[in-house]
Amino acid sequence: MIPDATTEALRMLISGDPALWEIIMISLTVSGRALLFCLPPGIALAFLLSYLEFPGRRLVVVMFQTLMSIPAVVVGLTVYLLLARQGLFGDLKLLFTQTAMVIGQMLLSFPIIVALGYSAFQAAGRRGWETARTLGASRLRAFFKLLHEVRFGLFVAFAAAFGRIISEVGVSMMVGGNILGYTRNIPTAIALESSKGEFAQGIALGIVLMLIALALNLLLHFSQGREPVVV
User: Fold this and answer.
1) Domains plus CATH for the chain?
2) Which stretches in the chain have pLDDT values below 50?
3) Nearest to 45, CA basis, from 102, 110, 108
4) Taking all residues of the chain, what is their mean pLDDT, rounded to a whole number?
């Protein structure tokens, strides 16, 4: 049965099965939007936590480091309760929409970006920032110079966040509803097809997830050259 299902999975991928690729595109679109919204504020907050001294800074850092490992189902339950009809934001009618999925995935990815971004900035030290400022660069220009220096560490943060949300099930299932053609993404489709005993589509989508992970790691490897990754 498994060899037959694997053969069918490969056929679906190669032939461009519309239902399969619709699920893939929903996953990429939702997760891409979540990261697009999280990256700028996440990197900015990581920078501020690294270079500004204020009371409670260490506590904030520890909080984000702790939230990195929060279970997806807990985030899903929280968003569900907030967006449900009787919830605080129930009037917005966002439950079981892609927007709800984006919100849930943002809550999952934001702590990862902040915590790993903070580690990247800390590892770089203050030398780059202070040197740029001494040479007369504006704060904004010095900031972008520093971003260039820690780019590999920030890419690690991006890859870790993307890997977390593209494969999570809890948030997508609870607030997306697994609606065919609208909120059914790769992990929820795998869970559904496997529960029905139909493994071909699940195997095909699993192959896609592995290829995405491989592509991210290859991109990181070839982009860093011989320089060490700052994490």
Assistant:
1) 25-185 (1.10.3720.10)
2) 227-231
3) 110
4) 90
